[in-house]
Each structure stands twice: as structure tokens, then as C-alpha cells.
Amino acid sequence: MIPQINISDYNYPLPDERIAKYPLEQRDHSKLLIYKDGLINASIFNNISEYLPQGHIMVFNDTKVVPARLHFQRDSGAHIEIFCLEPVSPEEYVSMFACTGRCSWKCIVGNVKRWKGDTLKVYNPENQPRLSEIDLKADLVERKGETSVVEFSWTGGVPFSAVLEACGQVPIPPYLNRDTEDIDLERYQTLYARYRGSVAAPTAGLHFTESVLDSLKSKDISIQTVCLHVGAGTFLPVKSEKVSEHTMHREPFVITLDFLKTLIDRLGKVIAVGTTSVRTLESLYYLGVSCIENGHPETVEQWAPYSRDYEYSTSSALEALASYMEENGLTSLQTGTRIIIVPGFKFRIVDVLVTNFHQPQSTLLLLISAFVKGDWNRIYDYALANDFRFLSYGDSSLLFRR
């Protein structure tokens, strides 16, 4: 049964001055709130290994933010901003970033009503040679509600990844209320980012440095990765009063068979870095159930976890997923999830969570509430009272599941 939740119950006062507009000079010098057994303490992030038990696995999302914000100009001089959300043709990310000459994306288009269907040219007021050489153009293919399908074309024979690097900007969150700056090119990216595809950073990972990773390894904490490409919808506030009316968009993710086997061996000892890692990990159970019941994994739908009682154990579901991969000769699996985690969700995989402090009335705050059995108010009250910095460039928390 779909939980009946009023989003207004997940509001809290967040003064603008508490939103971190810039990252700290050093990644791992952010504050760390520790929540365990209902008790709250504070430390510094570079001490995080001291609070973690030995022998666990820590799961990171190694997606990489792409400079997905592009600026164009009509012949009339009007400016049009295009924000790339997800590839349409080619549909697969690796193929998309490798393609040359032409591709299409689902996008959010600013001032779309001013775009009359003419071909746009990339905004290049200073006539930069590199931009002139690429000569990026955009054509409106179709409009679908709040999004549009846009076809890009360019010259020079360079891959689309290079086109974005030359023409695009890193899409920092709108609540920072500023333009992208040079510091964001490095700091709105995790140290371990590897696979291009996200339009927003998995921000819990922004605090990690090589020295912090080394301190984790010294405690026999195994570093593991998954890759979920973060869409713009992940961080949007819920606009409907009833959470049941909110739509989660599909986000693609990849796991490897080796990771899955390690996860099965370490069940009960799983630390997730960030809500995107949580959503990926918890989706694996339902992929396994699909393998048991249908013979193959299917995209995890938004309300699947709440639709019925599941009698399968976590290990049996994960083993079914691993068997499917082995029987089909797959060393990795690319699939997707629309899962929403709200109070009432039964966590089957994640035991400990590293995460930042999230926006009021967001699906991420609902996830936190589910993880700490409704005790989010006390955690956030403590953070507000003790000068913690909030949102993407803000401080961090270490939460042990209740």
C-alpha cells in the first residue's frame, strides 16, 4: 500500500545564511554529526574512521558530473539556456559521450517559449577560437511538458564529451544563487568520480580525501563502488501536498558481479556514502525478486517496495541476481530505478549512511526520516543549533540505522 504522507510534515526553517554557498578550503575539514542509538555527537569529517566498525564495506557512487549547462543565442540575440538531463540518441551514456557530429538529449530549456524552432548557435560573444571551431548548434525536436528533446550538431570530429568540456558549465544547484565559478570545476566533483553522466553531484562524497580513504582501509573497511547517474529530479522539493502524487524519474545505474558477491558476503556490514548509493543498494533486492519471479531483472518502480509483503530473504534475492548475471555471462549489469524511500520503507541492505543535510520537503529528507525512524527533527535541530552548514557544499552526518 502506498504510504499516505503529507510533505508539510517534513518542513523546517532553513535560513539562507545556513546554506553553504562555497566549499571549505579543505574537503575533509567539514563538521561531522554522528547519530547512533538515538545519541547525537559532533566531530570533524577527517575523523570519520574512528566512528566506523572494522570489517564493513563502504559503498561510493563513482558517477561524474558533466558540464551539462549550455548557453545559446538566437539570431534575434535572445539567450536560451539548455540543461542536458539524459541522453535520447544514442541512449547509452558511453556511446553518447563518444559520438561525433550529432546527438539528442532530453533537456530543460530556459525561455523555451522564446524559441520559435529556429536553429540556435552556441553563445560565443568573445569569438573564442575553440567554440568557433566546434560550432555547436541546437534544434528543438519536440516539447514534452517541462522537458524538451533537443538535437545538437557540431563540427571538428570531436566526441560530445569534448563538446561539453569546451562549451558547457558545471550545473551547480540553483539554491546557491550564483554563477558557476572556477572552484566548482574541481570541488563539485568527488575525488573518485569516474564515469560521466550526472547532472548533480553525489554530494556526500565531496568530503572524502585520500587521507580519509587511507584511514578507512587501515580499519579493514573495503572500498566498493556503484554508479548511479544522478538526475536533476533527485534534489527537487516535492510540490504536491501528498507524497503519493510525486513522480520519481528513472535513474540508470551499473553494478558489477564482483561487487554483488562482495555485498552478499558482507550483509549486515554495509555503509552507504550518499542517498544515491542507498537508492542503488536497496534497489538490488527488488531486482533480485524480479529474477526469482520473472527470470530477469526489471527497472525498480517507484512504489514497488510498498506494494506487498516480500517473503524472500535479502541474501536469496541478491543470490538470484548474481545467478542471473553468471548465467548470462554478465560481469556488470546496467539497469535503472525509480525507487522512492519514505517512512515505512523496510531497509534490507544499508546499515550506516554518510550524508549531507537536505532541503526541507524533499524526497531526500523523507529517506533520512525512514532511516532514523522519524528522528530527523532532532538531528536537524541539533545541526541548526550548532552552526552546521547545509546542502551540497555543507557539512556531513554519519547515521546508524535504528
Give a written overview of the molecule.
With 402 residues, the protein is α/β, with parallel strands linked by helices. It has 2 domains: 273 residues, 3-Layer(aba) Sandwich (QueA-like); 100 residues, no CATH class. Helix content is 24%, strand content 25%. A 9-stranded mixed sheet has the order 2-1-17-16-14-3-12-13-15. Strands 5-6-7-10-9-8 form a 6-stranded antiparallel beta barrel. Strands 4-11 form a two-stranded parallel sheet. Strand 1 and strand 2 form a beta hairpin. Helix 6 packs antiparallel against helix 8 and helix 7 packs across helix 8. The model has no long low-confidence stretch (mean pLDDT 94).
Q: Characteristics of this structure?
A:
402 residues, alpha/beta, QueA-like, 9-stranded mixed sheet, 6-stranded antiparallel barrel, 17 strands, 25% strand
